[in-house]
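Entry type: protein chain
Record version: 2
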Amino acid sequence: MSNTHRIFALIFACCFAIGGANHGRDIWQGGLLPYRSVPMPINAIWNALCPLDFAVAGLIWWRRRLAIALGAAIMSVDVGVNSWIAYFSGLHVQSFEPLQVQSLFLGFVLSGALFTLTGTTPKRGVDSELR
């Protein structure tokens, strides 16, 4: 694994572990299905993110392609559900900042997946092609 791929994997694992820890904290403090202000299916999805996030964070080191594919699917669903909550559900959202951070991370996962799954790395700089 190249240094670029290792850095991607480290950031990927840390961010998913942070996400899992956040959901774990919510479950620890509020019990199973702690998100009582949202419909039950969304509550179940957010609850499932705790073990899924931790699994993907660990899986990146042993089954990189599978972890990236699962991570991309998890983040796509999470951002999609959270966007629906924020913009279309009519539920009150305290802050859009978490959704913005999740959307940024989704972009990181998808763009990193492009380089990691295709086996390419970004070029070091535009100058190298001009010389």
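Comment: The mean pLDDT is 88.
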